[in-house]
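Human:
I keep going back and forth on a fold encoding question. Comparing notes only helps if you start from a blank page. Show me how you would write down a chain together with its backbone fold. Write it directly below this note and I will take it from there.

Assistant:
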Amino acid sequence: MRTDEDQFLEGNHKIAIILIHAFTGNPTYMHPLALKLNRVGYSVYLPCLTGHGTKDPMDCLRPDPNQWREDVTTAYEKMVADGYEKIVIMGLSLGGLLATDACERLAVFAGGSFAGPIAHVDNEKSKLMNEFKTYVSRLGHDPIEPEVITGQFNRIKALTTEVEQNLSKITAPFLVVQGGKDEIVDPRVAEKAETLLVNTSVKTLWYPNSPHVLTFGPDRHTFEQDLVDYLNSL
């Protein structure tokens, strides 16, 4: 299975779910969750964000976040063109931020953020630099200048600011998912976002023992079933 290509699992009804992967991730990271949703009948589309799914970590640093927003819009338009009448957009981490942004801009049926940096809090955790350095080392790539990495993270933070300012624009049902042991995004982000989502029905799923990548954490199976239950309730 190639890591730099979109994936699609066809279901048997008119709801399509777009799942957006995290920064440095790719569609294969969301595939186990997609399989769970597909087994109960949902069509699931896993777009690959520009610059992701390659073996060169610099590819994640080159695109402006606006390109990723366009990637999500393109995925949404594809599902509309394919005849899906109800489209849900959700994502993990950066994918959650982009999904939230899409819910502010597009006519979605529902949306959600899994450990997404969708609001700012005081004393935010800032371990992304070390995490990215580890990722670069794991790929066997030469070290990247810190200012290059910081530049991309600052652009992502700017997108967080914009998304936070527009959370009140979301009117479709919205799901906030957060792990209590998140080492990247401060768990308080979920609490703040819930207070700002004032024009929609919000449900929060909280997993005290889960880390940032909760889709592979100790509560992943519970989370998968909780997500199915939530979608079935819409």
